[in-house]
Structure formats: structure tokens, C-alpha cells
Amino acid sequence: MAFHVGPGDAAHPVRRPLQLRLSQSTATLALAAAFLPTALGHEGHHMDKIPEGEAISLDPIDTTLWVHIFVQMLAFGILFPVGMVLGIVKSRWHVPVQIFSTALAVLGFALGYWHGGRQFNSNNVHVKAATPLFFLMVAQVVLGLYLKLHLERGIHGRIRPVFRILHSINGKAFPVYAWVQMVFGGITALGFCQGDHIGQCLAHFIMGGAFIAYGVLLTILLLVGQIWLRRTGRSQEFFDSAVIAAWGCVNTFTEHRWGTAWVRNDWQHTSMGIIWWSAGLVGVWLSRDRHGAPKRNFIPGFVILITGWGMSAHPQELMISAMTHKMFGYTLMAAGITRIIEVSFILRDKPGISEDGTEINSFQFIPVFLLYAAGFLFMGATEEQMALLAASGMDHVAYVLILYSLASLVFLFTMALLQIYDRANPLPKPVVNGHAVRGDDARLRDVNEFELDGLVSDDEDEERATRRKLLRDDGLEDGPDTPSTVASTVGRNSDRVA
After folding, report:
1. pLDDT digits over 46-101, tens only?
2. CA 247 – CA 250 distance, rounded (Å)
3. Does residue 175 belong to any structural domain of this protein?
4. Are 180 and 202 in contact (CB under 8 A)?
5. Are residues 73 and 199 located together in one domain of the fold?
6. Can you give the residue range of the structural domain that contains 470?
7. Inside any domain, residue 315
């Protein structure tokens, strides 16, 4: 029972369930405030063991820091996304899950500054990103607490819609915050992406993350987004091609440091940007037919294919790096080829297998999963990672299999979140006589009508056609197994026997 004060209403007494929820939220907020000095006080870290020119010391990661890593991965990587979906579907578990996630996150923040063992430069990117993330989390708790009060009187009636929008946007962006912060955490823990390595780190992590994000978006559209896509009046390739063209424009002018000599990688990266915006514009043009209706096309799959071919031949200094990049290129090529096959031969240029978007061909999951795998392969192929692997003795086969395993887990988690959403917001099914009809039932009814054709008399056919026409005009057409049909058939059989 929620506490509600409406215009002209007297304040209703606050009931016990709300008191419990408010006390839990207030306790979480108080806990966050108590740890705030700890979260901001990273200047107290000792850096006396860090060698000159390095970002970390040679000490191992201690147990406290490992607990920090696993707690934050659980809170930000799993529980916050689950709570976000529960909030979208307005589940009663949204508030408890988010309160528990916030409490874990606050504990993780504290553990990150209480650990011993390996020392880090206090000016690292993970620490810099932690402070705004902490304040965004506190702001989310405050907004959720305010919205839970259901205050709508006076000025609250004007600011409540704004707070609701801010709460929604911030909550939906939390998985993105979490992803970026976890990447920063891995970089900081290993002391990577410093000095001259920053540029190639940015290229690998941004482009690899983009492929994973593309796979997530395709998963959403495949499982729950077909109805929304139909409402936009545009084909999926329009949006894909527009993003490809925009990204290509950025790469064309940023992959080479202007004013310096051109090297082999600069030529490849810049020319790849050119093909992206050139082909992307073609894809936008082909996304409508001559009558202006949405039209599927092959361009996004082709761009992915040609990019994979280019990356498979990317020059590398280390053998393990060359083999990892080659596998990344092959994976991306496979994603492009299977995407073209899906659009042209599986779907035959249709938006989906079925009109309601609920039926999915198993082949459609292949290009989506390969995009996840390609993203992880590219993110895991930076210069410093390859040097670390070469010194460790691990070969490229084991490393590629590990990255494919990570891609599988993220793919699984994405589908699990969409399953939670789909259970609360199922797609509408075809309705006949007020009852939902599954695809199998509809096909069975068509088969029965086909097999019975010719076994009924011409008089019955004519009578049935007349009755159906009248009922159709009134919007009351009966199916083959409705009571009125059965009664009519029994009546005719009785007359025939008499």
C-alpha cells in the first residue's frame, strides 16, 4: 500500500509496509553517506613500492581486493541490470533488489580502499570513474526514495515527472556505467594502457565494446523488438546503416594523427572508415523500396564481412597477436556472411519469421552470437595483453576459447534479462473468437479445413459461406469449433435422419 497525497486529498496514514521500505532505503542512503569519505579519500593510498615509470607495484592482488572485484561484479554486473529490468516491468522485487545491490556496491567501494598487496597510482582511471559513479548511485537511491512517497501535491506535481524521467534514464544507463567501470578496473589492476599504449587501447576497447553493444541490440530486436521496429516504419538495416555511416565518418578523420607520417596501420584504419561511411550511405538508400516501404538489404552484413577480412590481415609483431587478430577477423567475417544469409534466404527480406515476431529461426542466433565473440576477441587483443600472454606460455587456442566462453556468458545473461522482461510483457497473440491461438493451433486448423474440403455437401458449403459472411459483417465470425457451429451441424444431421 503506497502513501499517496493527491490534489485536495488529506494525508493518508502511513502503513507498515511503506515504513519498512522507507527504513530500508534510508538505511542504505545512510550507509552510503557513511562510506563517502572513504570513497573520496583515495589520496591516502601508499605508492612507495611502485617502480618509476610504472602504474602498479609488483605485489600480488590480495584477498581483500579479490573480494572487492567479485562483489562489484555481482552488484554492478548482475544485480543492478536485473533490478533495472524489474523496474521496467514494475515488479514488486525492483526495490528490494536495488536496495541489496546498493548495499553490496557500498561495501565494494570500501573494500577497494582498504586492501593491501598490490599498489596502484592514485590518479588511475578506475578511481577517477568511481567518484561520479558513486554519486550517480546515491542520486538513484534518492530519486527512488522520493518517487516511492507518491507526493503529487503542489510543486511535487510539477517536479515528480522530471524526477521520474531522470530516475528512468539513470537506471537504464547503469549497465553501461558498470561495463565501462569494470573495463577500467581490469586495465588498472594490470597496469595497462599507459603512455604510448593509450591510443591502441582506446581503439580496441571502443571498437570491441561497440561490436558487443551491436550484438546486444540485435538480441533485443530479435527477441522482443519486432513490434517496436514495425511501428517505426523503417527496416532494421536503416538504423544499422545510419550508425555505420556515422561511425565511418569518425574513423576516417581520427585514425591517423594528422601532421605525422603515414604508416601501414594508418592506411588500413582510414580506408576502413571510408568504406564504412560509403557503404553505410548505400544501406540507408536501400532501406526503402520504390514505393517508400521498409526494405531489408545486405549492406550491414557486407560491412561486417569486409571489416573482418581487413582485420584478419592486420600486421602484428607477435605471433600470438597475429593469430588472435586473425581469429577475430574470421569471426567477424562469419558474422557478416551469416547475417546476409539470414536476411536474404532465411527471412527472404521479411522483418521476421512470423507476423507477431514471436517465432525465431535458430539460424538467426548465429550472427548475433558471433558479434559478441568478435567484440571480446578484439577487446582482448591489445599490445600489452598479447605481450603478457606470450610471456605466460598460453597459446592462442586456449586464449580464444576463454574469450568465446566470456561471450557465451554475456549472451546468456542478455537473453535471461530479456526473458524476465518478456514474461511480464508478452507479445500479443492472434485471437480467434476471443481466445488466443498459437501458431501450431492455427496451422492445425488450416490442415483440418483442407482435409475436410470435398467431404461436405454443396448445400452445406453454401449455407456455411452465407452464415460466415453475415457474421463477418457483424464482426462475430465463429471458428470451426464454436458452440454455434456444433449446434448447427447437429441440427442439420437430425433433419437429415428424420
Report:
1. 666 788 878 888 899 999 999 999 999 999 999 999 999 999 999 999 999 999 99
2. 5
3. yes
4. no
5. no
6. 432-480
7. yes
Which three cell numbers, joined as nine digits, stand for 353?
519469421
- Establish how many alpha carbons lie within 13 A of residue 481's alpha carbon, considering only the half-sphere containing its beta carbon: 11
Question: Smallest Cα–Cα separation from 253: which of 268, 273, 267?
Answer: 273
User: Amino acid identity, residue 328?
Assistant: F
Domain-embedded: residue 496: no
Does residue 9 belong to any structural domain of this protein?
no
**Residues 223 and 146 placed together within one structural domain of the fold:** no
Are 36 and 139 in a shared domain? yes
What band does 270 get if pLDDT is binned at 50, 70 and 90?
confident
Rounded distance between C-alpha atoms, residue 51 and residue 53, angstroms: 6
Q: Please give the tally of structural domains in the chain.
A: 3
Instruction: For residue range 436-485, list pLDDT tens digits in order.
Output: 555 445 444 444 444 444 444 444 555 555 555 555 555 544 444 444 44
Of 197, 291, 300, the C-alpha closest to 240 is 300
Residue finishing a domain among 166, 191, 216: 191
* Cell, residue 55: 602504474
- Give the position of cell 559513479: 133
Name the nearest CA neighbour of 25 among 99, 136, 86.
99
Q: How far, in Å, CA of 456 to CA of 405, rounded?
A: 59
* Domain co-membership, 182 together with 251: no
